[in-house]
Design goal:
It is a single chain. This protein has 435 residues and is α/β, with parallel strands linked by helices. Strands 2-1-3-4-5-6 form a 6-stranded parallel β-sheet, sandwiched between helices. The chain has a 5-stranded mixed barrel with strand order 15-16-17-19-18. A 3-stranded parallel β-sheet has the order 7-10-11, sandwiched between helices. Helix 9 packs parallel to helix 10 and helix 13 packs parallel to helix 14. The N and C termini lie far apart (48 Å). The structure holds S-adenosyl-L-homocysteine, iron/sulfur cluster and FE3-S4 cluster. The site of FE3-S4 cluster has 11 residues, from helix 1 and helix 7. Iron/sulfur cluster binds next to helix 7.
Amino acid sequence: MKYHITTYGCQMNIHESEKIAGVLKSCGYDEESEEEEADIIVFNTCCIRENAENHAFGNIGALKKLKKSKPSLMIVLGGCMAQEAGKAEYLKRKFPFIDVVFGTHNLNELHSLIEQKRNSKKAVISLREEREAVEDGIVPVRKSYPNAWVNIMYGCNNFCSYCIVPYVRGREKSRSAEDILSEVRSLVREGYKEITLLGQNVNSYAGSGMRFPELLDQVASIGGNFRVSFMTSHPKDFSEELVAVMKKHKKICRRLHLPAQSGSDRILSLMNRRYTREKYLSEIALLKREIPDCEVTTDLIVGFPTETEEEFEETLSLVKEAGFASAFTFVYSPRTGTKAAVMDGQIPEEVSKKRIMRLVECVNDQTRQKSAECVGAETEILVEDFDGKKDCYLGRDLYGRMGYFKSDRDRVGEFVRLKITKANGISLYGEEIKE
Ligand code: SAH
Ligand code: SF4
Ligand code: F3S
């Protein structure tokens, strides 16, 4: 029997798919890259914005034919969309050929749900409000060598007014530091070269009576040749201790992902972000004072309800003032059940579209400029993959910059020093410096 998994959404979901694969593997299934050849197809969904949902709807709908011609095919839907209020019933109506729906808190039940469905004609739906135990005991099938994702916490307590994550991922639950450290130790032993600590808000980690900076310190103190990165940090919980730990360890990436969302204090307050533009900028100033070469990346939303042209321009000016190396930019998408979705002053699509175009241009200009400044410099990348089209190996450096180079043998998982010869957008091209 063979499985195929399609994943939408954030790193958390990408890692969760590795766990879904782990569950299926332990039940004797093998991975299949072609959907048509699989006996079980799993959609691990995201609902952060409407287009994430539409994308999944399109792909699920397209399976109707396949299911008809192959009735034994099992179609399973999991992830954040399944967990949305009322969504499971909606999905059952819209796609009556779905066999199993499971939520974000009961991955460890997946095997028994599949078995249940084998003995029943009706769809099996199982959703829980919260995860029962922090540890799921699942051994993931890791797909992102040389990087390994490690959950340090689940859920979110922040309730940013636009965001559905707290509703579909439940309250914050931190894993114990012992479990995290032992997982990282064995990953390093197995040869993983970058460990990414994952949480919706890693700075509110509170496992084993430890705060995040202490955990990060301990992870980075593990011996071996590897890097440590983490995401995501919320500016309201950013601390001097965190900067001190980053500064102490050369293993920790010189790139902080610190979502700003907006440059306007009034919008930040409506978003329930609990910091001001000034506080945000003072955090970056502190970071750059202590670690001058550290880069900052961010997430930005345009078209939040009532956002004026001037307020949008404050986001534009923040890009420059904060000196972001790059940014993920989003058009605000109303999510049912969130506070912002029922606010007056929803912004028309044409207006948001114009704003996002201006923002993307501004971010890209800055990224391009920063890349161009790298030409002639040296950097060290961790090789992640081979790009067949470019006929190059590629990897990222400590600053999160993507570097490409040519080699006649497989280099994935190696640290390679490059002399940067060319920059194109966010991509850097270089020649290997052979010692
Ligand atoms: N926990 C992380 C990221 C969560 S989702 C954090 O707090 O940073 C990733 C990004 O999606 C967010 O940072 C935000 O910029 C964006 N996002 C979340 N909800 C959104 C919505 N309703 N519309 C548009 N963008 C949204
Ligand atoms: Fe959503 Fe805010 Fe939580 Fe991030 S911190 S997941 S944006 S509610
Ligand atoms: Fe991630 Fe999307 Fe869920 S961004 S937490 S998969 S809603």
